[in-house]
Structure of Orotidine 5'-phosphate decarboxylase:
Amino acid sequence: MNFFDRLHDRIRTVDSVVSVGLDPDPSRIPDHLQEHDLPRWAFNRRIIDATHEHAAVYKPNAAFYEDPDGWRALEETIAYAHGKDVPVLLDAKRADIGNTTRQYAQMLETVDAITVNPYMGRDSLQPFLADEESGVFILCRTSNPGGADLQDLTLESGEPLYERVAALADLWNENDNVGLVVGATKPDELAELRKQVPDLPFLVPGIGAQGGDAEAAVEYGLADGVGLVNSSRGIIFAGEDEGEDFASASGQAAKRLKKRLNQYRA
Ligand SMILES: O=C(O)c1cc(=O)[nH]c(=O)n1[C@@H]1O[C@H](COP(=O)(O)O)[C@@H](O)[C@H]1O
């Protein structure tokens, strides 16, 4: 089954479009877990136990796992999320020349979807796009302030670069497996992009810690009810000051966010 069909089912099952970002900054993992063999895995396991009923997906960001212990922690985390029937979207922002990107795309055997970077063009994304079962979220208009440096540049045609990216992504969506990443900090761009590519689901990060617009994230992020609104730090570190019971605050934060976003779902 195609990723977006699976996501549709998952959203219906848990009545949630929340993507729980698993970005376990080692310096913020509670003291009592620091002695664990793999503190990031010990942390994620407790977060997953507390939040899975509210999670449409888990989105681990690869940056938090790029060392030998991190790779082990990530492997355990992915398997555990799958054991709870939650799809995993790896936030890797990959892409490279052909033979290299083919290696990157092998990750899709382990996760359900991935984020990719369009900067190197279609051939750099081809092995991801060719994988009919997996979701491919292409960075379009990112949430960070520096996103404007390149993405807002106006092309000769008069359109901003990020709109060209959206048009290309629509063209590359031959297998109905493409989505866009559009930050919640850019509500006007979200609205414009939704008009431009009505059928592409969006992954919308940037609410919570980055201060983005949750209502716009839902109103424009979903295509036919399918899309994702991510919160990472706002959920996983909600119980940072609560010691050994930290995870129940994360569960409550995920539930609160689900309810808040559901107010805006059609
Ligand atoms: O691709 C992403 O998920 C992403 C794109 C973007 O434009 N902005 C953005 O914040 N993200 C990711 O979404 C997560 C946001 O984390 P919080 O700000 O803690 O909710 C991080 O993993 C970011 O790397």
User: Anything to note?
Assistant: The chain has eleven helices and eight strands. Residues 3-264 form a domain with the TIM Barrel fold (CATH 3.20.20.70). The chain has one domain: 3-264.
